[in-house]
Design goal:
The protein is of the alpha/beta class. Helices cover 24% and strands 31% of the residues. The protein contains three helices and seven strands; from the N terminus they run E-E-E-H-E-H-E-E-E-H. The protein has helices at residues 64-71, 87-96, 117-129, and strands spanning 2-10, 39-47, 52-59, 80-84, 99-103, 110-111, 114-115. The strands form two sheets. It has a five-stranded mixed sheet with strand order 3-2-1-4-5. Strands 6-7 form a two-stranded antiparallel sheet. Helix 2 links the parallel strand 4 (80-84) and strand 5.
């Protein structure tokens, strides 16, 4: 079983000079609501034995091709995916024929032995560290 979820960080642009915008230093906010091209998407995948994959997917929203490039070689037919409700995860699981459990924010947190709390905890520690 794999728990998989993504998180986003604001991309720092101190190095590059962009006309019409001051450099962002240490956090800040995006000019756009939600997930935008100003944010970098990081995928975190863990299994029950705490084997962890952390990978940079790119900027903006996740696409299933990015998921396949990042973690496709680590999954097999018997893998059970537990993810948040983002539609790229659903499309990827359907395409690969994987068993998939989705968890919506603010709704149920567990479905039997399936949950994503392990990855949520990892996200919290990662964001505190950064």
């Amino acid at each position: 079983m794999k728990w998989m979820k993504h998180t986003s960080f604001i991309q720092r642009k101190e190095v590059r000079s962009i006309q019409g915008r001051k450099p962002r230093k240490r956090g800040g906010t995006s000019q756009f609501r939600g997930i935008s091209h100003e944010q970098v998407c990081v995928l975190v995948a863990r299994d029950r034995t705490k084997n962890t994959f952390v990978g940079l997917l790119g900027r903006g929203r996740i696409q299933k091709t990015q998921l396949d490039n990042a973690i496709g070689h680590k999954l097999n037919d018997t893998t059970v995916l537990c993810t948040d409700a983002w539609r790229a995860f659903k499309a990827y699981a359907n395409e690969k024929g994987l068993t998939h459990y989705r968890f919506k924010t603010g709704k149920e947190r567990t479905k039997g032995v399936y949950h994503i709390q392990n990855v949520n905890n990892y996200h919290q520690r990662l964001k505190q560290w950064i």
